[in-house]
Amino acid sequence: MISYSDPALRKTIKNHKAALIPVGSLEQHGPHLPVSTDSDIVTGIAERLARKCDLLLFPTITYGVSFEHAPFFNLSVTSRTLHVLLSELCSSLVSNGIRKIIILNGHHGNQKALEGIGAAGAQVYTFSYWRFMKTEFDHAGFAETSLMLALSDKVQMKLAKKGFDPAKLSPAQRKAVSKLAQTQFIKATKSGVWGDPRGATRAEGIRMISEIVRNLAKTVSKLT
Prior knowledge:
Elements: H1 6-14, E1 19-23, H2 37-53, E2 56-57, H3 79-95, E3 100-105, E4 123-128, H4 142-151, H5 171-181, H6 185-188, H7 202-223
Parallel strand pairs: 1-2, 1-3, 3-4
Helix pairs in contact: 2-4, 2-7, 4-7
């Protein structure tokens, strides 16, 4: 899209019902996945969703709210900064004739920043892709690693190790640990991994992507 000339892009805008902006993050994902994992996954899903629903896809915002991963690596912005950035981008899209905007989120820590985003004259919808899959989500575990195997050649499965496994915790214990992880991830898992990536497969990743895109498309089709 950004390689288009101005006349070509304006013509393209007229032929599309809505814009799609993916939002990811740059943060640790254990020893076997790249720090770009959230951005890579949400970009791959957004590309497929844009083709399926004929959406105008804009570049992924790769900086998210990931301070909870310190002292592991994270390149972060505050919730307010991300909220303002997206709000201003939506306003800019409106000024260019785009009235429906879909923001697709790829990082749990971004959710607060995405609340209440709007722009005068626009309909703005925000979705987190993992809410459109049945497999329990994790962090650098089975789900994310499978998704990355389907989308990227950056996965180093030889380095994959089991991380924190909440399966044996009571609901109350799991809730408490999850809350802790939202602010101090290292206190929940010293390896930076939530789940077990060792059984991840490309085939399972492809299946999950198909499921996510199919379910997202059903929702998006009702909006556009």
